[in-house]
């Protein structure tokens, strides 16, 4: 077993807000290079029906665009977040407990991943636990997602 530095974290926590993408209209694809796929089909004689159909389907109409920032969430909308804990150490990590709370100006709501899981979680090297949490926003104001991960290292700390 490799020695572990006392200040090194064995687990990596990743938190991502989930948002729906939007459909965006794009203009036609313009291709000038002879090696481009669209150019190959459009340069062939139109007698080849198959190549004409493919060239038409390769033009972009609508594409999905992910939000560039977190944006706002409004009263009644559902906040969704992906929580992932990954064991990036060479040793197994025991007794993992992940706690997530959504804190507002007046309340703190527990959104823990392990509400129904009473058994101790053990992550082997390279393994991951993850889940999606959802909460309908019922209060106006700033909300803060608080994530806490507790575990026992192989040394028992």
> Which parts are unreliable, with pLDDT below 50 for 5 consecutive residues or more?
none
Give the mean pLDDT.
Answer: 78
> Would you identify the CATH H-level superfamily of the largest domain?
Immunoglobulins
Q: SS-based structural class?
A: mainly beta
Helix content: 10-25%
Largest sheet: 4 strands, antiparallel
Please write the string of helix (H) and strand (E) elements.
Answer: EEHHEEEEEEE
First and last CA, distance: 16 Å
- The whole-angstrom Rg is 25 Å
Count of helices? 2
How many distinct folded domains?
2
> What is the name of the CATH topology of the largest domain?
Immunoglobulin-like
Question: How big a fraction of the residues is strand?
Answer: 35-45%
- The CATH class of the largest domain is Mainly Beta
**Secondary structure: number of strands:** 9
- The backbone outline, from C-alpha atoms, is flat
CATH hierarchy: architecture of the largest domain: Sandwich
Would you mind describing this structure in some detail?
There is one protein chain. This protein is mainly β. The chain has two domains: 11-19 and 70-152, Sandwich (Immunoglobulin-like); 22-65, no CATH class. 10% of the residues lie in helices and 39% in strands. It has helices spanning 37-43, 49-57; strands at residues 11-18, 22-25, 62-65, 78-87, 93-103, 108-110, 121-123, 128-136, 144-152. Strands 5, 6, 7 and 9 form a four-stranded antiparallel sheet that branches. The protein has a three-stranded antiparallel sheet with strand order 1-4-8, with no helix packed on it. A hairpin with a 4-residue loop joins strand 5 and strand 6. It starts with 10 loop residues before the first strand and ends in a 5-residue tail after the last strand. This is Probable trafficking protein particle complex subunit 13 homolog isoform X3. Residues 9-155 form the Trafficking protein particle complex subunit 13 N-terminal domain. InterPro entries: TRAPPC13, TRAPPC13_N. One of its GO terms (cellular component) is TRAPPIII protein complex. It comes from Drosophila pseudoobscura pseudoobscura (Fruit fly).
């Amino acid at each position: 077993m490799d020695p572990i530095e006392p200040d090194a974290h064995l687990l990596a926590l990743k938190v991502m807000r989930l948002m729906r993408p939007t459909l965006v209209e794009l203009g036609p694809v313009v291709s000038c290079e002879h090696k481009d796929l669209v150019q190959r089909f459009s340069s062939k004689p139109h007698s080849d029906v198959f190549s004409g159909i493919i060239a038409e389907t390769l033009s972009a109409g609508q594409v999905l665009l992910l939000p560039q920032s977190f944006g706002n969430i409004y009263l009644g909308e559902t906040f969704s977040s992906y929580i992932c804990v990954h064991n990036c150490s060479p040793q197994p990590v025991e007794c993992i407990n992940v706690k997530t709370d959504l804190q507002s100006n007046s309340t703190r709501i527990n959104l823990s991943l392990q509400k129904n899981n009473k058994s101790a979680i053990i992550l082997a090297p390279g393994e991951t636990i993850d889940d999606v949490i959802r909460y309908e926003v019922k209060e106006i104001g700033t909300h803060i997602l608080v994530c806490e991960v507790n575990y026992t290292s192989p040394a028992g700390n």
